[in-house]
């Protein structure tokens, strides 16, 4: 049952999808503020996860006499640390994107320079390529791997 609340990153930032006006300039102050809110909320949520992991590992760390129990705990911690490492990289990307907003260089494709689009940026605020350039980059990457 829909509640009318936005889900995903929009829900995390407690914002609704941006409603563009017909005569509105792309990446105006209102749009920049919209994405700034989303990115900051996302960054804060990731930082909370890091804090939770540190707390969990301090509280749950035990020297189990049974090697199987010890191995299970080590594997659990390893998986958590791997997830936090991915999140750490994502936080860096969010910081880079926030800097692009401050420099007024946000919302345009790094490769071809066209508008990335509001909906794509709401789905992935750290996107730095339009969908066409990203698709081509992924195809090239697959060809180089294959």
TrEMBL record:
**Function (record text):** Transcription factor that acts by binding directly to the RNA polymerase (RNAP). Required for negative regulation of rRNA expression and positive regulation of several amino acid biosynthesis promoters. Also required for regulation of fis expression.
Subunit composition and interactions: Interacts directly with the RNA polymerase.
Every copy of the Zinc finger DksA/TraR C4-type domain together lies at 105-135
InterPro entries registered for this protein in UniProt: DksA_N, DksA_RNA_pol-bd, DnaK_N, Znf_DskA_TraR, Znf_DskA_TraR_CS
Q: What is its main location?
A: cytoplasm
| Record bears the keyword Nucleotide-binding | no
Task: Tell me where in or outside the cell this protein is found.
Answer: Cytoplasm
Q: Name one GO molecular function term.
A: zinc ion binding
Give the encoding gene's name.
dksA
Zinc-finger (dksA C4-type) residue ranges come to: 109-133
Full protein name:
RNA polymerase-binding transcription factor DksA
Q: Which GO terms describe its cellular component?
A: cytoplasm
What Gene3D superfamilies does its record include? Answer: DksA, coiled-coil domain (1.20.120.910)
């Amino acid at each position: 049952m829909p509640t009318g609340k936005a889900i995903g990153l929009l829900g995390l930032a407690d914002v609704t999808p941006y409603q563009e006006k017909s005569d509105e300039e792309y990446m105006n102050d209102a749009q920049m503020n919209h994405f700034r809110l989303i990115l900051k909320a996302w960054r804060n949520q990731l930082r909370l996860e890091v804090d939770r992991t540190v707390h969990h590992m301090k509280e749950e760390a035990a020297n189990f006499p049974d090697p199987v129990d010890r191995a299970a705990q080590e594997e659990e911690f390893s998986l958590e640390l791997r997830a936090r490492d991915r999140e750490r990289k994502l936080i860096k990307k969010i910081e880079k994107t926030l800097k692009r907003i401050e420099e007024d260089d946000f919302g345009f494709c790094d490769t071809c320079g066209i508008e990335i689009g509001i909906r794509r940026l709401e789905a992935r605020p750290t996107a730095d390529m339009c969908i066409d350039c990203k698709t081509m980059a992924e195809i090239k990457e697959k060809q180089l791997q294959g």
